[in-house]
Structures are given as structure tokens and as C-alpha cells.
Design brief:
Elements lengths: L2 H17 L1 H61 L7 H21 L1 E2 L5 E2 L5 H29 L6 H60 L8 H28 L3 E5 L5 E4 L1 H7 L17 H17 L8 E7 L5 E13 L2 E10 L1 H22 L9 H18 L3 E8 L2 H8 L1 H18 L5 E6 L2 E7 L3 H16 L3 E3 L2 E3 L3 E8 L7 H17 L5 E5 L11 E4 L5
Parallel strand pairs: 13-14
Antiparallel strand pairs: 1-2, 3-4, 3-7, 5-6, 6-7, 8-10, 8-13, 9-10, 11-12, 14-15
Length: about 575
Amino acid sequence: MTYLEMALSDTWEAVRRKGGARAKDILSLAIMLFAVVTMGLVGYGQYITAHITQRQSELLPIADGVANRAAASHLYLIEALGGDTSVDVGKTVFVPLTQAQQLLSVELKGGTDAAGYVVAAVTDPTIVRDLKLLSEYVDAFKADATARWLHRAHGGKISARSDRAFNTVYTELVGITDRLSKDVQHTAETQRGVVQRLNFAVLGLLALVFGGLAYVARRSRRSIVLRNAELELRVRERTRELASNEARTTAIVNTAVDAIITIDRTGVIQRVNPSTERIFGWEEGTLVGKNVQVLMAQEDAKHHDEYLARYLETGKSHILGSGREAIARRKDGALFPIDISVSEAKVEGGHFFVGVIRDITERKAVEAELQAAKAAAEEAATHDPLTGLWNHNRILEVLMEEMARSDRQGSTVSLIMVDLDHFKLVNDGHGHVVGDEVLRTVAERLQKAVRTYDSVGRFGGEEFMVVLPGTVPADAERAAERIREEIGKTPISTSAGSLEVTASLGVVTRHGELVNDATALLVAADTALYESKDAGRNRVTVANLAPADEQPAGLSDQTASSAP
């Protein structure tokens, strides 16, 4: 019989003496109703908290979804305006923007999203304001993108001022998505705080009521004497129940697949289940009486007694009550990964610690396989499969990142376009297998010729791009000459014999007041490269950019001396 049962029983006795059985029934009903209402309020608070969390999880991806679509549209529009005919403007530029508009419309007005789920409209004024503002900027960004594309499609030229205005709208759009994420998180935390305070108030009231019951129970303890006979019978019944429960508990522990270990205050093993001996490779009955250190890796075993003594002295532990991963040791010395949770048990006449251990060797192997697969997927998404260099999309991203860094730090960034001379003759005369061998060797020589923090990518076919951050024009020109010499210094050994290979290069540097976007740099470098081709190949041409407000007045090129 528990203390609560005894207290309630004594309370009923006191009520019976004062008001009879009817008073007992009324009090029981009142307590039951109070408990139901209280738990209902707590349950409602949990429901509201879950609803807040769900809405937060629905709203947070909105900002990322709009930002990602705008970024993709921005990048592909730049490539399309730069003359990349492989870009499907409708699919890669305007479809993502339309999707972003639909996404914002569903969140503002409610309705059915792209996945077919019914979404309730946002009601919080702060989030509504952010969504409306973001919707306006998405509309403006789409309108600007449409105007720029139509203007270019009809033969017009895009001015630098138009570029700046377009980039300003894009920057503002990205800023609003960041603010939307922060406002969603702040609103959710504020609402959770209100619900938590309500729960604390309800639980406090519940504690107060039961405290009052306990007070009444203490005052009626005298009635216990009158019920000794009944209590003795109940004790016998409870003893039988405990024996039955003990048998069931023992059966559960002995059949558990996880290892269950009980140790005392000194770390000595008091009890283990059969799975412990199986997992750790010990014979039945040989672990009890040994220190638990025999099951630990050397480093953990070395400090276990120290940690245990410190906990018993201070009562502070980072392990009790929570699971963690660790390394365990089998009897034969083999180490393996485990998941372990430790709890503390204080009983009359003893103080024990119980550890539940699971062998996670297979899970770790699966995690390693998944990690390897993820790494391989990331490698395939960003690297050229033939040369191992950055692929076309990734090297463009690197250029955009370095230009952004240039804006923030006021530094320079240079771009080198490299194209192999007469490479078509290699493919036509010796086949694409030999051509691939040449491309791989050129990629190795390119990486050897640049600095460790420079970036090299295969732009397409036999054309390569090199991004050099923090490089002034003179250094960029010297780097290009170094690349040219490295590529053509010795014949390349192939399955068709040794082949002489040279390259033509175009160099451009963005610095000072020269505010150029990525498209302008690519066009300038590409133009300089083809001037190298026209001037006889196997040489470097440097493009000198005019200030942004003077473009597009033309590019003046300077051809460096090189081998004929």
C-alpha cells in the first residue's frame, strides 16, 4: 500500500466521521473533476506547443525555398544574358520564380500547396508583413528579370546601372528571407513561453491541492490504528504481488537483447543479464564481482574510478539520465562501439548504478556506408568526372563567391580562361580516348601551376577556368604565363605516343573602381582568349577593363610576349 493510498484512505475516514459516506462521494467526485480539468489544460498546452512547432516547421522552409529559387534564377539569367545558349530560360529562370510566388500566395491566403496538403493562412501580423514584403520583392525581381531578358532578346544591351538595380533587388530579397526566418523563430519562441507559463501555473495549482490533501491526511493518522488488521492483510497481498512482479522483471531482464549491468558505489559488478555475457564474450557467471573497468576501453577505464568518486562527492554528472556513444572492450580485447545509458538507484541499504548497453557495430557500419555515399554524391555534383577538377557549375559558383568576398574586403580577383590549341585535331586524329588522356594530364599540370588557394575548373570541352583571389593584374599575367609554360613544357605521353600540346589564355582582373559582374568578367576573359588565338595561339592576352560607368565602351587588350 503506497503512502498516497494511505493518505487518501485516512482522509476518507475523517470525512466519513464528519459527514458520512455521501460527503466522501462528493469529495471524490470533486477531486476527480479537478484532476481531469487540470490534465486537460496541460494536454491542451502540449497540443498548442505541438501546433506552434508544426507551423514553425512549415514556415521556416518558405524563406529557404524562395531564396534558393531566386538564387538559381539569378545565376541562370546571368549565364543566359552572357550568351550561354544551353540555358533554358523559361525552365531555369522563370519557373522557379513562379513557384516562389505560388509558395508565398499559399502561405498568405491559405489553400493547397504543391505537395497537395491543405495549408492554413498565416495570421501573425509580423509574419504576414514579412511574407507580403517578400512577395512584393519576388514580383519585382521577376518583372526585372523578364524585362532584362526581353530587352536582350530584342538585341538591346544591358547597362551597368541596370545591373546594379537588378542586383539591389536581389540583395533586398535575400535580406527579407533572412528576416522572415528570424521572425518565425522569435514568434514561435514567444508563443511557447506563454504556453509554458500556463502549464507551470496549472501544475502549481495541482501541487497546492495535493499538498492540502496531504495536510488533511497527516491530521487523520490516528485512524491507522483502527485499520491494522486490514493493512496486515493488504501487506500480505502486496507481498505476493511484488514477488510476482519480481519474477516478471527478472524474466524481462534475462530475455532482453541489450546488456544490463548493475554495479555498486565502488564500480564492482553486482548483476548482469545473459546478453551482457554474450555481447562481451564472457562465460556465464564470471563477470559478477569484477570491476566494470574490464568492459571498458583503456582510456575510459583509466578515469572511471575518478569520475565515480567525484560524482559521489559532488552529485554532478554529465552521464546519468542520458544516452551516449562509447567504445567497449570484449574479453578478447577487441574494441567495439556501444550506446550506453546509465541510471542511479537508491534503495534501502544500497546505492547502485544500472547501465543499459547496446552493441551498435552494425549501425556504425551502415552510417559509414551512408557517409561514404553522401561524400561520393557531393563529389559527383561538384567535380568533373574526367579530370577531377571543379565542374562548370561549381567553378561559376566559386567565381561568384570570390567576387562577393572582393566586394566585402575591397580586394581584387582575377580570372584566367585557358583553351587548348588545335585540340580537335587530337580527337579527330587519335580518338576521344587519347583526347581524354590529354585533358587529364593538362588538368594535373594546371593544378601544379597555381597556388593552393586558387580554384581550377573545367569550363567545357577543352576549356578551363582559373579563379585567383587577391591577385593584381601583373601577378595574374605572370600566373597565366606560368600556366602556359607548364602545359606546353614537355610533350604529353598518351597511348598514341607523345603529343605536343599548347594553350591560349585570356586574363582579366577586377579591382579598384572596376565594378563588373561575373558575366562581364567571363566575356572579357573569353574575348582576350580568342585574341590570343587570332594572334597565333600559345600566348597570353590581358584584358584591361574600363570603369563600370564607361562600359560597354569596349575592351582594350594587351598581348604579352610568348613563344611563337
